[in-house]
Task: inverse folding
C-alpha cells in the first residue's frame, strides 16, 4: 500500500549507521582563499577521518548505474564529454581560478586561514551514504514516483537557535509530508532548509542608512545584522559557530526522526487538530479523516502503531552553496566510491546570482557528488540551462539535478514550458520543483517585505498546470517557512493583514510562511496531486479498454 510503503523512507537510523563504514578524508590541498589571493598557505598533513554512514553496498554509484548511463542520448554524451574537456580537471580548490561572486572580504587573512584549517579537521556533518540515498529518492521524483517537500528558514540565525524552533519546523514538515503523501499516494522526500542555511546572497554589497555606508548583512555565518561597523565586519570565527550549530541541529533532527516523535499516528492527530481549528477546516477535514481511516485499516492488517515503519521517518538537510571556503573545508573524499562529497549538507543548490557557467560556484559544485539544485528565474535562457545541466551532471544521473523554478505565476506559464522542452530535447533527466516564494515578494505600506499567500498559491497552480500541459512531472515544492506563528506573509485562512505584519515579524531576511499557512498550502497541493493521480489512473484504464 502506498501510504505504508512511503513511511518507511527515513533519516538513516542509528542501526543503519553501524552497518557500513567509509573513510571520509579531508583534502590534503591547503586553502587559498581568493579574497585576497594569498600564497602563504603551507601544505599540511591530515589524518583520515573514519566515519560511519548509511548502510549500502560499497560501490561507485555512477559506474554501477548501468541503466542511468544508457538513458542519455549519444549526442548528449558527446556534448558532455566535450564540455568536461573544456572545463579541465576538477580539484577541491579549482574554483579559486574562477570569478567568485557574493563572497565576503575578510580583513584578516591569517585568521581566516586558521579557521578554515580548524573546520577542515572537524568531523563531517553528514555522511556520503546519506547523500547517495537522497539522490536515489530524488531520481524517483524525476520519474514522477515521489514528491519533494523542501522547506525551512530563509536564513538560520544564532539568536533564534533553540530546540523548540527546530522541533516546530520539523513538526510542520512532518504534517505537510503526511498530507502530500496521502494525496499523491507516493513517497514524500522531506528535505529541510536547516542545519546550514546561514549565508545569503545580496543584491548590493553595501547598505546605506542616514548617510552611513556599511557592508551588507550576509548571514550569521559571515557577519551580524546590527547596523554598526563592528557587527558588519566579516568575522571568520562565525563559521565555526555555524558548524557547531549545524551539527547540533542535525543531531536533534536525527533524534526526532528516529525516536518516536515522527510517529504517523501522532502526525495524523496534529493534522486533525489543525482542521478542527481552521476557519476553512471543512475543506481539509475529509482528507484528514481518510488518512486516519487508512491508519486504522493498516493497524487491523497487523501494521500497528509501534511498528518501526510507523514511528520513524527519513529527513535530509540542504542549503545554498554560497560561502565556498566553508564548503571546501567540509569536502571529503569517500573511500567507498572514490568521489568527493561536500559533507556540510546532504543536498546543495546554486542560487540565481551565482549560477554563471564559468563561475566559481558552478566549478566547485561540478566536482562534488551531492545531489544539486539549480535556482531558475524567468531570466534563465533555455540553452544556458541545458549547458549548466551538462556541466553539473555529465553522466545524466537521475536525482543528481533538481531544477527549482522561481518566477511568479504569470511568468511561470510563459517561461517554464520553454525550459521543459529544451531539457527534454537534450535528453536530460531532472526533477522539476516549484519555489513559489521568491517571485512573489512585495513591499507592504509599512515598508516591510511580505509575500501574499494568494500569489504563492497561484504560482503553485501555474506550476502544476504547465506540467500537465507539457506531459512532464511536477516533482516537488521548495518553501521558505517556519513552524512558528509569525506574521510575515499576508493572507491564508487565518488571515494575516498588512496591519498584522509588525506584530510577529521575526525573519532575518525574507518573509516566511507560518505554520498554519504552510499546512494550508500542503492541503491545497495534496488536492492537486490527488486530482492528477485520479486522471492518470483513468487515462491508463481507457488505454487498456477497461
Result:
Amino acid at each position: 500500500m502506498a501510504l505504508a510503503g512511503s513511511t518507511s523512507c527515513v533519516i538513516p537510523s542509528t542501526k543503519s549507521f553501524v552497518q557500513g563504514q567509509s573513510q571520509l578524508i579531508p583534502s590534503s590541498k591547503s586553502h587559498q582563499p581568493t579574497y585576497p589571493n594569498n600564497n602563504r598557505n603551507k601544505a599540511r598533513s591530515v589524518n583520515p577521518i573514519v566515519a560511519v554512514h548509511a548502510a549500502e553496498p560499497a560501490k561507485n554509484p555512477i559506474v554501477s548505474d548501468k541503466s542511468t548511463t544508457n538513458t542519455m542520448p549519444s549526442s548528449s554524451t558527446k556534448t558532455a564529454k566535450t564540455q568536461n574537456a573544456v572545463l579541465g580537471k576538477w580539484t577541491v580548490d579549482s574554483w579559486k581560478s574562477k570569478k567568485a561572486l557574493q563572497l565576503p572580504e575578510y580583513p584578516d587573512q591569517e585568521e581566516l586561514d586558521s579557521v578554515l584549517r580548524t573546520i577542515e579537521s572537524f568531523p563531517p556533518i553528514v555522511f556520503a551514504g546519506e547523500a547517495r540515498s537522497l539522490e536515489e529518492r530524488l531520481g524517483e521524483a524525476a520519474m514522477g514516483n515521489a514528491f519533494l517537500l523542501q522547506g525551512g528558514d530563509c536564513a538560520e540565525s544564532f539568536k533564534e537557535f533553540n530546540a523548540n524552533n527546530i522541533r516546530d519546523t520539523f513538526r510542520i514538515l512532518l504534517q505537510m509530508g503526511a498530507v502530500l503523501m496521502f494525496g499523491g499516494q507516493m513517497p514524500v522526500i522531506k528535505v529541510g532548509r536547516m542545519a546550514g542555511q546561514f549565508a545569503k546572497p545580496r543584491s548590493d554589497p553595501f547598505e546605506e542608512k542616514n548617510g552611513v555606508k556599511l557592508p551588507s548583512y550576509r548571514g550569521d555565518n559571515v557577519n551580524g545584522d546590527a547596523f554598526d561597523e563592528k557587527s558588519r565586519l566579516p568575522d571568520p570565527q562565525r563559521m565555526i559557530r555555524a558548524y557547531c550549530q549545524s551539527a547540533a541541529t542535525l543531531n536533534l533532527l536525527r533524534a526526532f526522526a528516529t525516536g518516536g516523535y515522527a510517529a504517523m499516528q501522532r502526525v495524523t492527530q496534529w493534522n486533525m487538530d489543525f482542521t478542527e481549528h481552521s476557519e476553512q477546516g471543512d475543506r481539509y477535514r475529509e482528507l484528514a479523516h481518510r488518512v486516519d481511516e487508512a491508519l486504522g485499516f493498516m493497524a487491523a492488517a497487523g501494521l500497528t502503531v509501534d511498528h518501526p515503519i510507523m514511528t520513524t521517518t527519513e529527513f535530509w538537510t540542504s542549503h545554498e552553496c554560497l560561502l565556498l571556503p566553508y564548503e571546501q573545508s567540509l569536502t571529503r573524499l569517500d573511500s567507498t566510491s572514490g568521489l568527493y562529497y561536500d559533507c556540510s549538507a546532504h543536498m546543495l543548490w546554486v542560487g540565481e546570482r551565482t549560477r554563471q557557467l564559468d563561475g566559481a560556484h558552478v566549478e566547485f559544485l561540478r566536482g562534488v557528488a551531492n545531489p544539486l539544485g539549480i535556482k531558475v528565474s524567468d531570466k534563465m535562457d533555455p540553452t544556458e540551462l541545458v549547458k549548466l545541466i551538462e556541466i553539473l551532471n555529465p553522466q545524466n544521473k537521475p536525482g543528481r539535478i533538481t531544477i527549482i523554478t522561481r518566477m511568479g505565476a504569470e511568468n511561470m506559464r510563459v517561461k517554464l514550458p520553454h525550459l521543459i522542452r529544451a531539457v527534454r530535447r537534450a535528453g536530460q533527466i531532472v526533477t522539476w520543483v516549484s519555489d513559489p516564494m521568491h517571485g512573489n515578494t512585495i513591499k507592504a505600506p509599512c515598508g516591510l517585505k511580505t509575500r501574499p499567500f494568494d500569489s504563492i498559491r497561484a504560482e503553485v497552480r501555474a506550476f502544476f498546470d504547465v506540467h500537465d500541459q507539457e506531459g512532464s512531472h511536477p516533482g516537488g515544492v521548495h518553501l521558505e517557512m517556519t513552524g512558528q506563528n509569525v506574521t510575515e506573509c499576508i493572507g491564508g485562512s487565518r488571515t494575516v493583514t498588512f496591519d498584522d505584519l509588525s506584530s510577529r515579524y521575526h525573519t532575518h531576511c525574507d518573509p516566511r510562511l507560518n505554520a498554519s499557512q504552510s499546512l494550508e498550502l500542503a492541503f491545497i497541493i495534496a488536492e492537486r496531486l490527488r486530482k492528477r493521480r485520479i486522471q492518470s489512473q483513468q487515462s491508463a484504464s481507457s488505454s487498456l479498454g477497461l
